[in-house]
Design goal:
Helices cover 50% and strands 23% of the residues. With 163 residues, it is α/β, with parallel strands linked by helices.
Length: 163
Amino acid sequence: MRILGIDPGLANTGWGVIEENNLRYRPVSFGTITTKTSMRKEERIFTIARKLGELSASYEVDLVGIEDIFFAQNVSSAITVAKVIGAVIQQMTLNGLEVAVFTPLQIKMAVTGMGTAEKKQVQQMVRLLLKLEEIPRPDHAADSLAVAICLASQLKSFKRKLH
């Protein structure tokens, strides 16, 4: 099963594709979609959703996981990220894909077993679980792989919810 994990953001959206087989994970590809501040906000959101839609098709993913926004002091940026999440969910749904949204706490628990894990601990576990030589860079790509691992670890319960 191929899973696309997404770490949404307006300036940088991380994406990572993994393959899951009996709770063993293999990295397929990962990267970051960057939008320019010179673009209109709506155009940036559309570009992110479109590119993720293209990636999901080219890597033939089966499911998509997205990190939800956590409480932010900057309400304006939180609203913008929520718009990115909504556009991506719509694009993936149009592509015929099921989407799961996870809180940062759920992702940390799934990847490290601790909801209080630090960012470096999550990234180190991503490296170990995917048998990578180094922590994936940039951080957004590593975070997206953590989202994919989170969804992969919860496949049975996620599939039950679908039926």
